[in-house]
Amino acid sequence: MRELVRVPRLPPPVHPGLVKEAENRADAFGSRIADAITRFAGSMTFVYLHLLWFAAWIGLGVEHYPYGLLTMIVSLEAIFLSTFVMISQNRGAAKQQAIADQEWRTVQEEDHQNRELLELSHQILVLTREVHGFTRAMSAPPDGAAAKAVPASRPLAGP
User: CA-CA distance, 122 to 130, in Å (whole number)?
Assistant: First the structure.
């Protein structure tokens, strides 16, 4: 019977926000039951079992047309399943919120890091300009010495 009712297993969450959400969800007994029911109700095994059940109910003549008891059972099942689906959707929304919150924190941290990098880049630019100014001042010949140091007809040698 265990092979017939195979409940799909979800892979463990990798997103940091989902890990915490999974831990919180694992603590709640009712949440685990709702998750298991929703996973099973969303499987093809659930559909096949219902096909067999309806075929047996009608084929064995458990009750006669218009199948009042079967209708009542299926209606109650639909009520409970819709409730479990809504619970699962609410938890799905909570997962999405946990992801969004984690991503927002990441964006905020990245924004802070970008601001720091921009400030460091600005400081490097200022220092580079100061070094260039200093090297120009140090390499410039004293007043009037420029004309005597390099004759105009001779090109400067490259590095």
Answer: 12
Residues across the chain: 159
Domain containing 132 equals 16-136
Mean pLDDT of the residues in the chain: 80
Residue 153 lies in a domain: no
* Both tokens assigned to 6: 């195979």
Query: How many angstroms from the chain centroid is the CA of residue 33?
Result: 25
Between CA 95 and CA 127 the distance in angstroms is 48
Stated pTM of the model: 0.48
Residue 97 covered by a domain:
yes
Query: Do residues 98 and 12 lie in contact, with contact meaning Cβ atoms separated by under 8 Å?
Result: no
Q: CA 39 from chain center: how many Å?
A: 21
pLDDT per residue as tens digits for the range 12-32: 656 666 666 667 666 677 777
Q: Which alpha helices (H) appear in the chain, and where do they start and end? A: 16-27, 29-41, 44-59, 68-139, 145-149
Residue 140 DSSP class = S
Between CA 118 and CA 18 the distance in angstroms is: 32
CB contact at 8 A, 69 and 60: no
Q: Is residue 125 part of a domain?
A: yes
User: What's the number of domains the chain is made of?
Assistant: 1
